[in-house]
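Need N-acetylneuraminate (7)9-O-acetyltransferase's 3D structure for a figure. Predict it.
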Amino acid sequence: FKGGDTCEYLLSSGRFLGEKVWQPHSCMMHKYKNSEAKNCLIDKHVVFIGDSRIRQLFYSFIKLINPQVKEEGIKHGNIPFEDKSASIKVDFLWYPEVNGSMRQRIKSWTEGSVAKPHIIVVGAATWSIKIHNGSNEALAQYKINITSIAPLLEKLAISSDVYWVLQDPVYEDMLSESRKMITNEKIDAYNEAAVRILNSSSRNSKAKVKVFSVSKLIAQETIMKSADGLHLPESSRDTNAMILMNVYCNKIMKPIDGSCCQPQPPLTLIQKIAFCFFTLSIIGYLIISLIHRNNYRKNKSCTDLESGEEKKPAISIPNVSTLEMLLHCFCKLGLIMTYFYLCDRANLFMKENKFYTHSSFFIPIAYILVLGVFYTENTKETKVLNREQTDEWKGWMQLVILIYHISGASTFLPVYMHIRVLVAAYLFQTGYGHFSYFWIKGDFGVYRVCQVLFRLNFLVVVLCIVMDRPYQFYYFVPLVTVWFMIIYATLAVWPQIIQKKANGNCLWHFGLLLKLICLLTCIYFLSYSQGAFEKIFSFWPLSKCFELNGNVYEWWFRWKLDRYVVFHGMLFAFIYLALQKRQMISEGKGDPLFSNRVSNVLLFISIVSFLTYSIWASSCKNKTECNELHPSVSVVQILAFILIRNIPGYVRSVYSSFFAWFGKISLELFICQYHIWLAADTKGILVLIPGYPMFNVLVSTFIFVCVAHEISQITNDLAQIVVPKDNSTLLKRLLCIAGFFSGLHFFSAMQDQSRH
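Structure prediction for N-acetylneuraminate (7)9-O-acetyltransferase:
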């Protein structure tokens, strides 16, 4: 289903999500702030011509520029408005009937060197119906008048944006006696005449008057709330004004969450190169596959001419070469990236705004929890935070985060605060997992570092190229990458303290604690010194990675939000491994972690702590204040969950294979959702099947999960090729990667120069 002309859809069709949120058909509407409206309309002249209904629209429009404006103008007269700071002029001209006077005013803008308004909004009919008591003669005269005005409007439409506002229906039961002749039947007749006559003589697509018919649909839903049966309630006319702002400003301001009326972005130089590379990979893989297939067919069977018996060939099927495996991976990746581009950069599929309701979030949560419990199996090992358990943990957290994103639940503060804990728990696992590996294995080699960095960053680097987005846009990957390097640097720097060394001398434990204290001090200093943090990440080439919209503030904010939780994960791993080494905990199958008494006390404290945090998070009133406390207190619920999950032996001995499966591809799910499940860079929802929201979610989810799983497989396969264990080969690969990023930087610089 093509997205089609989203401007036409915005002006003519849509539906209400809930009571007040308007959803245009096929595209997303941006909610303009005063500063954005001023930037869009700077040095512009806007004119509204018509009756009291157009005057209502005029007031709603200028309130988007200046909310302090009061509706105190002359009711049956012209009303001027000017914002001198942005040189914006908006005028309302009182012409309640389509007649000679209106024609003369419009004609004056088409003659000579008179400055034409940039936007003209026209509409009138109810006064003609009222004054002439709904007579057929009045309708006939209306047709004659609008026929004489239409060519003038079409002439203005060549250089200006001209909108004809169709008449909204009325609520006949509420109309006063003097307005009883204004019926919906009459209004429909006038609207039909206007639509038929406007643009009938125009062959030039640029000289078309845009028919603003969406207000009719909005009025049909809301006119019952009208004060007099004729004029729309304030919320409805504000929606009309916002639609008008989107129609004109989206192509100028290009908001991410305003896909209506936005043209498809042109392909960048880097995107063109990526397209050529993937195309060549597909062609190369097909050629090699055909050659191998022909060779296999020739050697498949040979007939012994003497005995007439069929023999199996002596030659075995050749192993897949590195080149073929590489081309196979890039072939699949190229097809997947094409789907990414079509979903979120081409105007092929529709996009819609999110709309939060409690049921849209909590019902899917309950459903996946039931599924997760249904797929319960025994674990291979019963250690605390064993592999199956951490995969399960990552899996259910990722599914909850996905539901949170698609339902738009960030607007509900208690849910937002709990989701922040889930993100913190991912980082806690980063600290726990990497610390445990380095502490136990003592492997600080380049191979290990390159493997981790490749697996974390491969998909994001490809998306940065294909989707033309900065690295920091996918904020979670830079976050875990930097924290991995911090953990590595903390443990790898002299003196290298590992478990084997510490077992020989207990003083090494104090040395490691000293390192952790130094790390905590650095984190504390950087979190309260924004200037120092920004200086570190403003140096080239770090600035290229961590800047977003020209500065690193967003990166500082993201880092600061969960600044202590990785340290908490490292500290927990150290304490747990120390207790395990001294056999102070029992990890046998079915055994409680500690003695029965200690286990019961800790379990009680954990449940109370878990619930206390949830009560605090649910009572949050201010997001900023709660975010300030979050870095220090999020560890309470994380530790409480770990203890509840691991203290009882029977709970520690089972896991959900359903959640664990998703946990293995959690990183790919988190990144892929940006473009092929959500839309407009997570601001909206991808619509593959319009008109069937539930079916659409099922289809898009199925494709999304399959794609994430396939990318996980591709990443694992490529990691074996790109990051080999042999040091000399690895060095050559690293030089190639350095050359790749140098070329990427060169083309990026060329791209930026051409844009400016």
